[in-house]
Design brief:
Blueprint lengths: L22 H12 L3 H13 L7 H13 L3 H13 L7 H13 L3 H13 L7 H12 L4 H13 L7 H13 L3 H11 L4 H17 L5
Helix pairs in contact: 1-2, 2-3, 3-4, 4-5, 5-6, 6-7, 7-8, 8-9, 9-10, 9-11
Length: 218
């Protein structure tokens, strides 16, 4: 049996819930949110979602995320999708989650790009399409999103949505491992046993080139 098992892709709930605020700021944020400021609505939704500084209330979180998302706030659109995917404050609805992930992903939200890729990989709320999953993983990976880099490695290793390619699997697991993903480090050591010296050298060079292009501080 191959030592690297096919990954079971699960929904990635990345945090985009807004920054914690001190108590005096809550009233000001709510006032701005009620005045229609999208970013304030997003932050307020995040406070209700996490229960920081206020009692956790998914219904209120949904209310404020919906208002911000309707104004095009990508982070709110992403979190709106998360809540539909998880059935938090609303009935679970994968198709609705995909709708809001897509809106955020198309604006460049990396978390939404990861989750949209997972939905395509699993066929949740959308027809299963491994190539489309790879597309969204790559967009997030290029922004330095470690989970997406890890999943991209699996797609190359298994030949799902792309031509099977151990060099590319090595590249993305190497990058994800440097980013702190422990499973990527484990898989990197395993895939190396199936590669030639020349393939490993090529993978290392490609990884160096990609590292230089990735945003710093991720």
């Amino acid at each position: 049996m191959n030592s690297i098992l096919r990954t079971l892709l699960v929904l990635v709930v990345l945090t985009a819930v807004g920054f914690a605020q001190s108590a005096p700021d809550f009233a000001e944020t709510k006032e701005r949110a009620e005045a229609g400021e999208a970013q304030a609505q997003f932050i307020l939704g995040g406070k209700y979602y996490t229960g920081k500084g206020v009692r956790r209330d998914y219904a209120e979180a949904i209310r404020w995320y919906r208002l911000a998302a309707g104004q095009g706030n990508a982070s709110a659109q992403f979190m709106f999708g998360v809540m539909y995917a998880n059935g938090e404050g609303v009935p679970k609805d994968s198709a609705e989650a995909v709708k809001w992930y897509r809106k955020a992903a198309e604006q460049g939200n990396a978390g939404a790009q990861v989750n949209l890729g997972v939905m395509y990989a699993n066929g949740e709320g959308v027809l299963r399409d491994s190539a489309e999953a790879v597309k969204w993983y790559r967009l997030a990976a290029d922004q330095g999103e470690v989970i997406s880099q890890f999943l991209l490695g699996f797609m190359y290793y298994n030949g799902e949505g792309v031509t099977k390619n151990f060099v590319q699997a090595h590249v993305w697991w190497n990058i994800a491992g440097v980013g702190g993903n422990a499973k990527a480090k484990t898989n990197l050591a395993l895939v190396e046993k199936e590669m030639t010296f020349e393939q490993k050298a090529e993978a290392m060079e490609l990884a160096r080139e990609l590292f230089a292009k990735l945003p710093k501080g991720k």
